[in-house]
Amino acid sequence: MSAVVTGLGVVAPTGIGVERYWANTLAGRNGIAEITRFDASSYPVRLAGEVRDFDATEHLPTRLTFQTDRWTQFALCATEEALRDAGVHPLADSGLGEYEMAVVTASSSAGNEFGQRELGRLWSEGPKHVTAFQSIAWFYAATTGQTSIRFGMRGPCGVIASEQAGGLDALGQARRVLNAGAKLVVSGGTEAPLSPYALVCQQATGLLSGSRDAARAYLPFDPDSAGYLPGEGGAILIVEDEAGARERGAPHVYGRIAGYAATFDAGGGSELRGAAERALADAGIRAADVDVVFADAAGLPELDRAEADALVALFGPCGVPVSAPKTATGRLYAGGSSLDVAAALLTIRTGLVPPSVNVRPDSRYRVDLVVDAPRALPVRTALVIARGYGGFNAAVVVTAA
User: Which residue ranges traverse the bilayer (predicted)?
Assistant: First the structure.
């Protein structure tokens, strides 16, 4: 069984919709700015990658926006785009049965904004003022559930919670679901971690940047790196069995999910190389076959060094171009690695490796980081790697179809 991606949907700080996101990413436009979702002036972290022009009521029925958190609304919007892109929407014309379609998403912060709002009402106004949807909207599986309901997908459904690695882990699980008999899987992840509660939780890790300069706040592989910035949004991908996709006449195939692997360590990244090696082995390819790497890009010296050492061990010093487009969006957690896979597939399609904005690479890392402008390069194979807080590592290999 060969798993292919037939549809993409994106909601990101650098653009809503695949075309807008990709154009702004190639142009090096920065989506990092002051937080406006709430007054963050008293918080150590005041910058983030916000999706600033998103109005859920333009994409979803009012009834549904009332029932869901912003994170779920991002996913429903991206799923709508991805399904149309894959040529399976409206679903009544797709020829796919409801039990042949599945949903596997990833989430880290879940419905934190919705939950904080309703708990605030509980304590300030009393239980009668709390909506019944508080019981589900905050939960990690809410996006999977709402997607399943909205699009009539009753095949195997699930959610992965492994922070930034989760977007890749969800795609790995999507392949397993296809192997078990499903014909189509909605997969990927989104996040909306920019409520006061969520930001406080993230600050507790000690990994966030306190910089006030949006152009110099998130700098992986840079001499001035001092933490990362959070962001919201992500990507949804439609994953199908290649034979089935071609049989139903899918409009296009972006590429194959050729390899996947995951490892776990104590949080220092010692097993990151192992995840990449296992993903390459799963794809049946050598390191020399990889044309570009989409990096985890933690933005902290110790973690950047661990990732750089893994890349040098695999590919040699400056042995393969490396891209970190998340420098323009912030780390979107489960949404970030999903968005990186979308970027990798778009790189294969366009032959343009996106730049890592604002970064001045430190040569001591010995990483060929693409900066300033896109790099034209024939790409057939891309490696995407991600780490989740607490020791999660994952890698996905995507190849041209």
Answer: none
